[in-house]
Design brief:
- The chain contains 8 helices and 12 strands.
- β1, α1 and β2 form a beta-alpha-beta unit.
- The protein has 2 domains: 118 residues, Response regulator (Rossmann fold), CATH 3.40.50; 98 residues, Arc Repressor Mutant, subunit A, CATH 1.10.10.
- The chain is of the alpha/beta class and 227 residues long.
Length: 227
């Protein structure tokens, strides 16, 4: 299991990483929210330990973005905030558990084990798509064709494809994509940007724009994953 620790306090981060690695977990670490989001999407981690007080992008915002891009990824909040309102807010945003500093190594490991046990029954995130004539490796951001050709997906294209693939058989509206992939309020936002990303994504996937089979257009509703 690989665990990502997002914590700006170096001493706490080092202690948490050492504790996890002593129990056999692999770890990645970040000291800010922006890098943490990128690592959570690209590194294929199994659990995130997230401090809520971070420089720049705060922990609540990071949690909300992670729930949009990786809805099944388990997250445990680590924070000095012990107030009930903060705990409730974190849980409502989708945190799986909440550990208030200072905490012992024994308590942290127990909560990690419990969350990983529960999350084993969730649907898994999409990491690899096997399509007709090509394979999409979402961890590596690339499309590999049977004839040896490769194309690289941008982070936004990757998140768009991952979100559609995680919702198979369902038309996803542009507003939903703006909220959960672009992470913006869809009110007053030009949705043409989504259509442009779909065009580029289809091109990189080798998906015939006149008769697409992977990213389908559902007239009047949005887009749907078709394979």
């Amino acid at each position: 299991m690989r665990i990502l620790v997002i914590e700006d306090d170096e001493a706490i981060r080092t202690a948490v990483v050492d504790t996890l690695e002593s129990e056999g977990y692999e770890t990645d670490e970040c000291d800010n929210g922006e890098d943490g989001i990128t690592a959570a999407v690209r590194a294929g981690v199994d659990l995130v330990l997230l401090d809520l007080v971070l420089p720049g992008k705060g922990g609540f915002e990071v949690l909300e973005e992670l729930r949009g891009s990786r809805p099944t990824l388990p997250v445990i909040c680590l924070t000095a905030r012990g107030e009930e309102d903060d705990r409730v807010r974190g849980l409502k945003l989708g945190a799986d558990d909440y550990v208030v500093k200072p905490f012992s190594a024994r308590e942290l490991l127990a909560r990690v084990e419990a969350v990983l046990r529960r999350s084993a029954e969730r649907p898994t995130d999409v990491d690899r798509l096997e399509l007709d004539g090509r394979v999409v490796d979402l961890k590596r951001h690339e499309v590999c064709f049977d004839d040896g050709r490769r194309s690289e997906l941008s982070t936004r294209e990757l998140e768009l494809l991952r979100y559609l693939a995680a919702n198979p058989g369902r038309a996803v509206s542009r507003d939903e994509l703006l909220r959960n992939v672009w992470r913006v309020d869809p009110r007053g936002v030009e949705t043409r940007t989504i259509d442009m990303h779909v065009v580029r994504l289809r091109e990189k996937l080798g998906d015939d724009p006149s008769r697409p089979s992977v990213v389908l257009t559902v007239r009047g509703k949005g887009y749907m994953f078709g394979s």
